[in-house]
Amino acid sequence: MSGRTRFSAWLARISIAAVAATASLHGVAAGTRQVLIEAYGDSTTLGITCRNGGCGPQADNAVTFLQDQLHDVHGERVSVTNLGVGGTMATQLLSGTGRGAGLQWNERIAASHAQIVTFNYGINEVMQNQTPEQFYEAETALVKAARAQGKLPVLETSNPMPDSRRNARLAEMVAMTRRVAAEQHVPLVDQFAYITGLPAWQTMMSDGAHPKPELYRLKAQQDFRVLDPLVARMLDGSS
Length: 239
Fold this sequence. Notes:
With about 240 residues, the protein is α/β, with parallel strands linked by helices. It has ten helices and seven strands. It has one domain (about 5-20, about 35-235): SGNH hydrolase (Rossmann fold), CATH 3.40.50. It has a five-stranded parallel sheet, sandwiched between helices. Helix 7 (about 130-150) packs parallel to helix 8.
């Protein structure tokens, strides 16, 4: 059986099981399925933008735009929870340390009611001089633990950084995310490749790491392109 075939069969199994569990949990009537997506990541998931000399979370972020697009297609049956934490790395989500510290990942994902979990890390790994190998190990562990709990993990590469030296190091982290996605047979939203291919993408950055709202909107469109078919499959309970 090919990797693609194994992934399709696995997705079919968890799609049916996950939506059934959610319906039972929330008392949803038969035939009215719901899908919950949890978005984990750093400040670019949280939605920080810098303007007028200050940086802070903005309502116009990729997760909000994604929620709006999914609502336009599927209505209130789909919800996306933004669990991004500024300044954090994948290793901190795994260990339950750093800002917003809490449960270790194995415990946290076991308690989650989401069917889909997304991960967007890489920039702080560069800023904190983490090695690509450490990042690879952390993302692999996050994906494996999520899948063990019947969740569908979706990996996302970071948006590029205008500083060429830092961006070269970020590209090494991006390569690790792509590697984990390929090895673990999970969906990938390759924001780094998409944005790098946009003309003058640097003008859509608010500083050295955080997009402006117009780039967050474009990121959300890429998220939607990957997530919408998965959500649709879960909602109709088909393979």
